[in-house]
Amino acid sequence: MVNVHSTAVVSSKARLGENVTISPFAIIHDEVEIGDNTFIGPKTVVYDYTTIGNNVKIFQNASIGHTPQDLKFKGEITHCYIGDNSIIHEFVTIHRGTAASLKTTIGKNVYIMDYSHVAHDCVVEDNCIIANLTQIAGHVHIYQNAVIGGNVKILQFMRIGRFCMIQGSRTINKDIPPYILAGTEEVQYGGLNSVGLRRNGFSSDQIQHIKKIYNYIFESKLNISQAKEKITAEFSNDPFAVEILAFINESKIGIISK
């Protein structure tokens, strides 16, 4: 059964799953697919080419899948995807992709708090938390289990590594490698995100192991090239070292410093 309020406007072309709730004054456009047991709050608008998964909650006045704010966008058919079990609070705006990647993707179990913005061509992987007022520019990639504090501004093309935590009211203009806490007035390395790692099942030995890798990068007197050589030599084929070095090597703008 689908529960659509009498004041809602739902296109006959939209595809709604079982037990979907569409609240008063919500608008659902033509090329929209909404999965089972999903809740769409009052005055929320879901635009064309948006796919929303199962068990998603989108609260009042959100704008999902709207036209990207990019002057290069010429009306191409692009998409916005919202994964299962995600929660999107009031006044959140999420734009669909441009020709650059054709999509904006929000993963599963993502929690986005009120007044946040996710721009075109972004990827927010599974289990991320994005706090109030966070503004994410285009082409940003946030890897799984990252936690972004309130009122954070993330500039375009930035990458936020797995299991990071970014303290609130910061501007991100460099890539943030996996597992760390990023804070201070200018975003810098602030140690490991130890609390988040423990909550996600990392052992004390694993945390100390990751810390030792980052000590070469941030705590030693080695430059970044020397640190990478040291890590490669000492931690050959170690999965954490491989992931961290790959992240650094793929960075086009450099990583944060201490």
* Biggest beta sheet attributes: 11 strands, mixed
Strands side by side in the biggest sheet: 1-4-7-10-13-16-19-22-25-27-28
Counting DSSP H or I runs of 4 or more residues, the number of helices is 4
CATH architecture of the largest domain: 3 Solenoid
Percent helix among the residues?
A: 10-25%
Mean pLDDT: 96
Output the radius of gyration: 20 Å
DSSP strand content: 25-35%
Shape: elongated
**In total, how many domains does the architecture comprise?**
2
Q: Name the CATH superfamily classification of the largest domain.
A: Hexapeptide repeat proteins
- Uncertain segments of ≥5 residues (pLDDT<50)? none
Query: What's the CATH C level of the largest domain?
Result: Mainly Beta
Report a brief summary of the structure.
The protein is of the alpha/beta class and 258 residues long. The chain has four helices and 28 strands. The chain is elongated and about 65 Å long.
Describe the structure.
With 258 residues, the chain is an alpha/beta fold. It folds into two domains: 3-157, Hexapeptide repeat proteins (UDP N-Acetylglucosamine Acyltransferase, domain 1, 3 Solenoid), CATH 2.160.10; 201-250, no CATH class. Helices cover 17% and strands 27% of the residues. The chain has helices at residues 194-199, 204-219, 224-234, 239-250, and strands at residues 3-4, 9-10, 15-16, 21-22, 27-28, 32-34, 39-40, 45-46, 50-52, 57-58, 63-66, 79-82, 87-88, 93-95, 103-106, 111-112, 117-118, 123-124, 129-130, 135-136, 141-142, 147-148, 153-154, 159-160, 165-166, 171-172, 180-183, 188-192. The chain starts with a strand and ends in an 8-residue tail after the last helix.
